[in-house]
Write a structure and sequence with these properties.
71% of the residues lie in helices and 0% in strands. With 234 residues, the protein is mainly α. α3 packs antiparallel against α6. The N and C termini lie far apart (35 Å).
């Protein structure tokens, strides 16, 4: 875990409330990927394949995030995003980077990960990554920040759900889960560090509209990704 102090959550309450409403409306919490994982219909093999595909989203995620640093005019904004990028890279310890901890998770599922980094991403993940890159590099800054922020926010809850299901199915003991245990604890703070960048402009109708577009885009893309992962794996 990083030694960075958590961001003050009260300073992004309006954005977080909007994110909660969008995630409920888009149906992410009822996504069939998590329903089939929870109720036992998803096999270990299907889960393993879906997670091997998800690896390419994990490995790519810091790249569009890093693009936001270059586009942010305010020094403080760049520092908050930079902190997230550094943590994605294990606080400069490659073995603790999120891509490496996810590889460790895959190995414990029985995957052979040596060749994964050299493979092209499957179409569903390629599409997801392209949406994030476009939102962060080509759209208004508020759209990119909202898009990344709501994915971090949702992943905290989804990590807890995945970790619980994997442990309850007996696929990996809870004390050996690695990646998902970390993100269940870490990503809510990461999300707040993005949401706090949107909060000052929330009362400006134009900026709020852009932020809401970004939140909705991120929620849609994440929900779509998991639906496509389930389809590809089963």
């Amino acid at each position: 875990m990083s030694s960075h102090p958590p961001s003050p959550t009260a300073s992004c309450a309006k954005v977080r409330e909007c994110a909660d409403a969008i995630l409920t409306q888009c149906g992410l919490w009822e996504n069939p990927y998590f329903e089939t994982l929870r109720d036992g219909r998803m096999s270990l093999e299907a889960f393993r394949v879906s997670q091997e595909h998800f690896y390419f989203a994990v490995a790519f995620f810091s790249r569009p995030m890093a693009g936001l640093i270059a586009r942010s005019p305010a020094y403080a904004s760049r520092v908050d995003i930079l902190r997230n990028v550094v943590e994605e890279h294990g606080d400069f310890r490659l073995s603790d980077s999120h891509a490496k901890t996810f590889e460790a998770f895959l190995k414990r599922l029985g995957s052979r990960t040596d060749s994964l980094p050299a493979l092209p991403p499957p179409p569903a993940v390629h599409a997801f990554n392209s949406v994030l890159f476009s939102a962060c590099m080509l759209e208004a800054l508020e759209i990119g920040i909202g898009c990344i922020g709501i994915i971090e926010y949702a992943f905290a809850e989804l990590s807890a759900r995945i970790g619980t299901a994997v442990a309850e199915r007996g696929w990996i003991p809870r004390d050996r889960l690695v990646h998902y245990t970390l993100h269940a604890e870490l990503d809510r703070r990461h999300a707040d560090e993005f949401f706090v960048l949107l909060e000052p402009g929330w009362d400006d109708p134009a900026k709020r509209e852009l932020a809401e577009q970004g939140l909705a885009l991120g929620a849609y893309a994440f929900d779509r990704l998991y639906r496509d992962l389930l389809k590809a794996a089963t």
